[in-house]
Amino acid sequence: MISQPTQKIIYDYFGNSREHAIVLEKILPREAKAKYPLCIAGKRNCPPEDCGGVYGYAELLKTISDPKNEEYEEMMDWLGSEFDPEEFNMDGTNAMLKRKGYGCFSIDG
């Protein structure tokens, strides 16, 4: 459990070399009626499922960055839509937290 700023945990995504560092940067005052946990910031898009771990994701990024790559169309079809590795969807992240019920609870003022 982390409870002090600068503490971090490492999350290993199913043991496939996709490690995520989760760092507690700051403790903010609780907001009345807010649902927690709540994502307030983030960086970059998540790698798509089943992309082959760290190395497969690196290869995917290389492929989709070059429309002339012979595998470009196949990878874009596999992704199902445009995929922007730099995008971060905070609203989508919070919707997922709520939908999955990851410890969501309310703070009543």
Alpha-carbon distance between the termini? 25 Å
Low-confidence stretches: none
> Can you tell me the overall shape?
elongated
Q: What is the share of helical residues? A: 25-40%
Q: How many DSSP helices?
A: 3
Largest sheet, in brief, is: 2 strands, antiparallel
Whole-angstrom Rg: 17 Å
- What portion of the residues fall into strands of 2 or more residues? 5-15%
Q: pLDDT average, as an integer?
A: 84
Write out the strand line-up for the largest beta sheet, numbering strands in chain order.
Answer: 1-2
Series of H and E elements = EEEHHHE
Overall strand count: 4
Structural class: alpha+beta
What would your notes on this structure say?
Strand 1 (8-12) and strand 2 form a beta hairpin. This protein has a domain at 31-43 and 88-109. The model has no long low-confidence stretch (mean pLDDT 84). The strands form 2 sheets. A two-stranded antiparallel ribbon has the order 1-2. Strands 3-4 form a two-stranded antiparallel sheet. It is built from 3 helices and 4 strands. 28% of the residues lie in helices and 13% in strands. With 109 residues, it is α+β, with helices and mostly antiparallel strands.
Question: Could you provide a short overview of the structure?
Answer:
With 109 residues, this protein is of the alpha+beta class. It is 28% helix and 13% strand.
